[in-house]
Amino acid sequence: MDNPVIYVAIIVAVIVGAMFLSRGLRRSVSKSGSRYGRRTTDDRVNGILAELAATIVIHAPEPAARDILDRVVLQQPRKFSLLDDGGYGVRFVEADDAVVRLVDDAEGTRMQVVRTTERLGMPQNLEFWRELRSRVTAGAEAQTISVADGPQHSFARHDGDPVYWEITRESS
Questions:
Q1: What is the DSSP letter of 87?
Q2: 27 in helix, strand or coil?
Q3: How many other C-beta atoms are found inside a 10 Å radius of the C-beta of residue 139?
Q4: Which of 85, 82, 94, 79 shows the shortest CA–CA distance to 162?
Q5: Which residues contact 152 (CB under 8 A, 6 or more apart)?
Q6: In this structure, are residues 88 and 82 in contact, taking their beta carbons and an 8 Å threshold?
């Protein structure tokens, strides 16, 4: 083993092997990271949509519920807006990033999100929706009107510019 050519050949073989191994390893790690990122994003989107699908039922006729909601919206014009079509906007970037509507219900009037815009890869209006629900609940209770959780519904994603999620069906 006094021949240095054998040592040089072994060193060259190790270097070449490391080059091929690192390329394959990098590709494998990148794929794993992408899969994990998609899974994590999907879990977050599903969690956000589940909470946006939560409704409340105001045990009052629609005009009384609309009066409560109008007062809440007008108190927070940077977060909420009155829309021309009778709905209410929840602002993230635009005034109507999420659209809330009042719907007749057997027990009164149901307040629900009917459409939400996707920004930064997912729906973004969750915090303001929580705040709107709690403010409407407090406003109704201040008038001795009871409020209860309503039925859940689901959303379907619509591609476009911008991407948005729209109510598809109600479930209990």
A1: -
A2: helix
A3: 20
A4: 94
A5: 50, 53, 54, 55, 170, 171, 172
A6: yes
In tens digits, the chain (172 residues) has pLDDT values of 577 888 888 888 888 877 777 777 777 777 777 777 677 777 888 888 888 888 999 999 999 999 999 999 889 888 888 888 888 988 888 777 788 999 988 888 999 998 888 887 788 888 888 999 999 999 999 988 899 998 888 888 888 888 888 888 655 4
Q: What are phi and psi of 81, to 5 degrees?
A: -145, 150
Contact between 102 and 110 (Cβ < 8 Å):
yes
| CA angle, residues 138, 144, 146, in degrees to nearest 5 | 70
CA distance 68 to 140: 7
Q: Is the peptide bond before 162 cis (omega within 30 degrees of 0)?
A: yes
Which among 49, 44, 50, 51 is positioned nearest to 133, based on CA atoms?
A: 51
